[in-house]
């Protein structure tokens, strides 16, 4: 069907932890992008597809934008701006309780430098965390800082204001045939979704720098005759000490992580999963092109 259909890309950008992945999942109606309470959870661009009437909205979740210090940071931030550049509409997420932070200001400055590119809408997120009176003031302040085409007050987690945002986005999209089959929700390969699920469980359980210093890859995926899947994954860590922490006393930590990941994979696939995790020391993975490719990032962007 192409007649009367609309389709386009909507990039979700913002500081780390703003709630971009939560919003993507809410729009799609399924968890396709991992979410944690920590910053820098999302590493690459993840597309989620959502139908609204005759419009197909392809949401592009991006890594948070911050001042990059390391190679991986730079590749992530480049991926985020790349997501914005390719979109029909950009939505900037700002956390209601944090307001116009230095980081948000820096993003707005960068948006100004590319002004005229695409329309940018503002979504003030996490409104469940603040009093209503504060919101008007914040909205005014942000709209003085940048000419947003629209402002939405939302709670991605609770779903407030999300329908309005989706309807408006659908109305703004150009006429176009759909890009994906109507029932497709994500364009990430299953093996990568499975790796992300495990990385989420690791990030939730491990502290400080450790989640940043590890990556997860699906090495083998075997379909079994009984309808179940056997998934073998490797967790690369940069230091020997990290290996012990990931494993935990008597292997307890890795066991709990594996259980949580397996349960989520089983739910996602709708059939039993046998998950095998291996932790490997790989001190230089943060400087290996192949690791970036696996994550969906461009290695050169990290230069
Ligand atoms: N209270 C509240 N919390 C929210 C809301 N939306 C997201 N969160 C929480 O904010 C945290 C970060 O959410 P994410 O969706 O991972 O944020 P992100 O912008 O994708 O973060 P990065 O991938 O690190 O850039 C999680 O703990 C979410 O549960 C909201 O509307 N209200
Ligand atoms: Mg995210």
TrEMBL record:
GO terms for cellular component: cytosol; plasma membrane. Residues 154-156 are annotated as: G5. Residues 125-128 are annotated as: G4. Residues 6-175 form the Era-type G domain. Monomer. Residues 40-44 are annotated as: G2. The keyword GTP-binding applies. Keywords: Cell membrane, Cytoplasm, GTP-binding, Membrane, Nucleotide-binding, Ribosome biogenesis, RNA-binding, rRNA-binding. One of its GO terms (biological process) is ribosomal small subunit assembly. It is found in: Cytoplasm; Cell membrane. GO terms for molecular function: GTP binding; GTPase activity; ribosomal small subunit binding; small ribosomal subunit rRNA binding. CDD domains: Era, KH-II_Era. GTP binds at residues 14-21, 61-65, 125-128. Pfam families: KH_2 (PF07650), MMR_HSR1 (PF01926). Residues 61-64 are annotated as: G3. It comes from Pseudothioclava arenosa. It is a peripheral membrane protein. Belongs to the TRAFAC class TrmE-Era-EngA-EngB-Septin-like GTPase superfamily. Era GTPase family. This is GTPase Era. An essential GTPase that binds both GDP and GTP, with rapid nucleotide exchange. Plays a role in 16S rRNA processing and 30S ribosomal subunit biogenesis and possibly also in cell cycle regulation and energy metabolism. The keyword Glycosyltransferase does not apply.
